[in-house]
Structure formats: C-alpha cells, structure tokens
Amino acid sequence: xxxxxxxxxxxxxxQIMVVLFGIVLGLIFPEFFAPLSPYTxxxxxxxxxxxxxxxxxxxxxxxAKDWKMxxxxxxxMLIFLPLLMWLPLVLFAPDWAMAFLIxxxxxxxxxxxxxxxxxxxxxTLALVITATTSLLAPLTIPFVFWIAIGxxxxxxxxxxxxxxFITIVLPFIVATYVKQKRPKFVIKYDFWWREISIIAxxxxxxxxxADTVGSEGMITLSFRDAGLVIVMLIYMSxxxxxxxxxxxxxxxxxxxxxxxxxxxxNNTLSLYIANKFFPDxxxxxxLVILLLVINFLLPPFRWIAAHAVMLDNKQLKIKTRKRxxx
Length: 326
Prior knowledge:
Elements: H1 2-13, H2 17-28, H3 30-33, H4 40-52, H5 57-65, H6 67-92, H7 94-104, H8 112-119, H9 123-149, H10 157-181, H11 183-188, H12 190-216, H13 223-246, H14 252-263, H15 267-277, H16 281-296, H17 298-325
C-alpha cells in the first residue's frame, strides 16, 4: 500500500511523465496501441473538451488581442525558425536538411494546451498559439518550401481546417456552453476533467508512437547521425531561447509557454507532408527519430516552466511589498 501511495504521489506531482511513459509503452507494445490509431481524433476531442472546461474565455480573448506577441511568435515559428534550421544543414549535412525543414515548418501540435497545463504554463495562451499557427500554416508552409527548395508544397487546407474545427473549436464551444449551464457541476468534478485529459493524452502518445514506429520497422541511428541530432538540438535550443526573450513584456510563465509551443510541433502533419510529397523511407525514419527525441525531452522542459513560475511568484511578492510600503 505504501508503494502504491508513493507512486500515486509521484504521478500527481509529475504528471508530465505521462509523455515519457506513453512513448515507452508505444515502443514496447506497438501491437497493442497501433490498432487504436483510427481513434486519435476522438481522443483529441475528449482531451480538448475536458481541458476547455478548465479554461477562461476572458484570458483567451486577452491573449488574442496582443497582436504584437502573436505576430512575433507566428512569424518566428512558421517562417524564420524552419529556414534557420534548414540553412546550416544544407551546407554541412544535406541528407538531414529536408527532415528539419519539414519539422520546423509545422504549426504547434494540437495537444499543446494540455502539456502547458501539466507544466504549470498558460493553457489559454497555448490554445491561442495552436489556433493561429494552424490557421496560418497553409500559407506559410508553401512559402517556406518555395524559398528553401524552389518548390511549392501544397497543404491539405480543407483537412487541416476541418481537424482544427472538430478537435479544438467544437469541443471548446460545447465546453463553454456546459460551463454556463452547469457551473457547479463543472467545478465539482474539476479534478476528474484533468485526470481524464491526462489518461487520454497518455494513450494518444502511445498510439502515435506505436503507429509511426510500427510503420517504419526497426529504427537505427549511426554515431554520426546521433551526434548531428544532438548538435542540432542545441542549436534549436538557442533559437528557441531567442524567441523566449522576444516577448519581453510578458511574464516568465507566458514566455516559457511560447517556447514550449515552438518546440512541440504537429507531428501528424509533418509525417503526412513527408509521405505525400517526399516519399523516401530514410526521410520518414529521420522524422520519426526527431519526433521521438523531442517527446523524450519534454519532461525535462518542466523544470524550465517551474523555474519561470517561481520567477513570476518572486516578482509578484516584490510588487506586493512595494504596494504595502506605499
């Protein structure tokens, strides 16, 4: 019983570990989770409905009004970052350039709002960035590919917008209606909305990993490729750090959320584009490797978010003391 209590406490305090466990389970038991791949949309709907029950509409509107922040985040993420990731690889490792270009040009992943919640970040801000980057991606992705390789890669606009509406907009509308009609019910079971989201998210991660790895078979990585991925991750971290400080007028937690949105990209769309327009087994393997590596790095990212929240709390205490002295 003591062991069970300790495990329960561990998961309640470190719920972002669901990402790590989802990856591990997807790798170990692909035959169990891969058959669930046709139901990923339903999982996303459930996640966003439960998450939206815990969101505040006023905060979403306030973030949407900050056009300067959204312009910086969207232009940096959708245009400048993918090109800056692609350029050094064209010169020094051209066999990896396309993988990083495809991944870097993607909008924020659909489940980022829940991850931001697990990190202690700003869930509403993550939701706004998800919506804006997904809406702009059909315009920016062809533009970025035209600049980089001189070829326009069309994006499934109808499919992307349909998925955006079904998985994010519609669950949010329904959740807002439920909150207005049954506010006491929503507040009473607030704990369960979060837990259901987390469980569904863990299953979703395991399903995506099992499906992508299962379709590619055994994934191997040479020492040269491993070193290259590590160097590029350090380089990408520096680029993300620049975007972190660009929104200097925002709180530390908000800047950490922006950085997280830039790191956690729409892996489903990246695999679709690679498979549709660049049918190369090696490219698909490279993308799967990058997606797995980035997901493995998510749990340590929680420390950054926790530090950002701590800095915000310190600043709040300082401001409170100054007000009291006055």
